[in-house]
Amino acid sequence: MTVIARLFYRFAGIHSLLIGLLPFFIPVLLWQQDYRLTEVSAFIALTGVGFMIALMGWKALYDRRYWRAILIGSFIAELALVASLILATLLIERSMTLFILAALLNGIYNCFYWITQRTLFSAMTQSQTGNQTENKTGKQFGNFQIVIVIFLKIGILMGGYFLAQQQTLWLLLISTLLSVAAYYGLCKQAKYNESQLTPIDNAAIIDWRQKLVFTIDGVFLFCESYFWVLTLFFITNNNVMDLGLLVVGLTITLSIIFWGIKNTIDKLNQRYVFYSAIVLYALSWVIRSSITNHTEHYVLLASIIVIAFLTTFFRLSFNKQFFDDANAQHPLAFIIRKSYLSQRGLVVFFALLSLALMMMGESDKTLALFYWCLAPIAVLYGMYPLRHQTHLQSELNNE
Questions:
Q1: Beta-carbon count within 10 A of 347 CB
Q2: Is the pLDDT of residue 3 over 90?
Q3: Beta strand extents in the chain (DSSP E only)
Q4: What's the number of domains the chain is made of?
Q5: Which pairs from 356-365 meet CB under 8 Å and 24+ separation?
Q6: Do 266 and 128 form a contact (C-beta atoms < 8 A)?
Q7: Which of 79, 68, 85, 100 is closest to 15 using CA atoms?
Q8: Which of 109, 49, 53, 44 is nearest to 78 (CA)?
Q9: Do residues 121 and 144 make contact, with C-beta atoms less than 8 angstroms apart?
C-alpha cells in the first residue's frame, strides 16, 4: 500500500468513526428538539452555505501547501460541531443562534472532510493506476465503501448507546481524544503529502449535463442522510439505539454483497451498469414512499434491505463514473467544481422546500409524497455523459 493510500484510508476511517458518534444523528437530534421538516430543510440549506464559505478557506490552505493545517481544520470543525450539538441538547429552550451556528459548522466540517477525502482518493487512484491498462476505480471505491461502513457503524453503535443513555458529554470527550490521537498519527504522512500537492487548475471541463447532475446530486445525498434517516427513526419507534442497531444490521448484509461487487464492477459494461443503477435508484425512492409504521415486519425489513442495496449500488456506479472523469483531466479542479455545484443546488432547493413547507404546512404523509416526487427526478442522473470515461478507457486499451 502506498503512502497516499495509507493516509487516505486512515483519514477516512477515523472521520467515519467520528461522524457515526454524533453528526450521523443530526436529523434525529433536530427532531427531538421539536424541529420539523421545515426547520430540517433550513438547516440543510445553511449547511450548504457553510460549505461554500469553508471551500474558500480550504483552497487557500491547499494553495499554500498547508496540508497539516487542512487535517487539523477537519478535526477542529468536527469538535466544534459536536460541541454545538451537545449544547443544543442541554438547553431547555431552543436557540435560533445555536441552530444557525450548528448548521454552518456542519457545512464547514463537511467541506474539510469531503473535499480532503475526495482529493486523497483521486490521488490514490491516479498513483495506483499510472500507466496500467486497467482502470480500477470501481474496486478502489468499493474498498473505500467497506472501510467507511465498518468505522461509521462502530461510531453509530457507540453514539446510539450514549444518546439513549443521555450521556452526550461522553461523546464530546471521546471525539476529542480520537481527534487528537488521529491528528498526531497522521502528521508524518501529511508532511510527505505536502510535497506531492499540485496546484488547483481552474480549467476543469464540465458540460451542462454534468452541471445538472452535480446540482441535483447534493439534494439526493442529503435526502438520503437526513430525511431517510428520519424515516428509519420513525420506524424504530423513535428509539435511537434501535436505529443504530438497524443501520448496523444493514451494514453487515451489504458488506457481504459488495465485497463481491467491488471486484467485478470494473469488468462489466459501464453503460449498462450505470443506467441500470439509475433506474433501480429511482425505484428505491418509490419503495421508500410505501413504507409506514403499519407495514408488516418482514416486508418492512426486506424493503429496507432492498433500498439500502439499490442506493449503495447506485453510489458505487456513479462515483466510479465521477472519479474516472476527474482523473481524465484536472482531478482537484473537477472535484471542487462538482462540490460547489452540489452545494449551490442544495442551498436553493432546501431553502425553497423550507419556504414551501412553512406556507403549506406538514402532515404525516409529507415525507412519502416527497419521496414520490424524488423518484422521477432521480432519472435525470441518466443525462450524465459517459463519453469521458469511454474515451479514457479506449485510450488506455490502446496503450
A1: 22
A2: no
A3: none
A4: 1
A5: 357/36, 357/37, 357/38, 357/41, 358/38, 362/36, 362/37, 362/38
A6: no
A7: 79
A8: 109
A9: yes
CA angle 390, 394, 397 (to 5 degrees): 140
| Confidence at residue 258, expressed as pLDDT on a 0 to 100 scale | 67
142 grid coordinates: 468499493
For the chain, state the CA radius of gyration: 20
Average pLDDT, the chain: 84
pTM for this prediction = 0.89
CA distances to 10, 18, 75, 177, 178 from 184, in Å: 12, 16, 11, 11, 10
Measured CA to CA, the distance from residue 242 to residue 226 in angstroms comes to 17
Distance CA 213, CA 83 (A): 34
User: What pLDDT is recorded for position 389?
Assistant: 44
- The answer for residues whose C-beta is within 8 angstroms of residue 365's C-beta and 6 or more apart is none
Written as one letter, the residue type at 202 is N
Among 25-39, 96-110, 248-262, 358-372, whose mean pLDDT is lowest? 248-262
Q: Judge contact between 315 and 221, C-beta under 8 A.
A: no
Weakest-pLDDT range from 207-216, 226-235, 267-276, 348-357: 267-276
Question: At 199, is the secondary structure helix, strand, or coil?
Answer: coil
Alpha-carbon distance 117 to 8, whole Å? 7
Query: Measured at the alpha carbon of residue 218, what is the angle toward residues 212 and 222, in degrees to the nearest 5?
Result: 150
242 burial type by CB count under 10 A (0-12 exposed, 13-18 middle, 19+ buried):
middle
Residue 367 one-letter amino acid: L
- pLDDT, one tens digit per residue, over 160-173 is 999 999 899 999 99
| 378 closest CA partner among 330, 309, 321, 318 | 318
The C-alpha cell at 40 is 430540517
In the block, cell 491498462 appears at 133
Q: How long a stretch of residues is the chain?
A: 399
- Cell representation of residue 134: 486497467
Q: Which domain holds residue 311?
A: 3-398
Return left, alpha or beta for 330; rule: phi > 0 is left, psi -120 to 50 is alpha, else beta.
beta
Report the CATH number at residue 266: 1.20.1250.20
pLDDT of residue 26: 96
DSSP code, position 223: I
In this predicted model, what pLDDT tens digit does every residue of 175-197 receive, in sequence order? 999 999 988 888 766 655 554 55
Grid cell at residue 69: 493545517
Which of helix, strand or coil describes residue 135?
A: coil
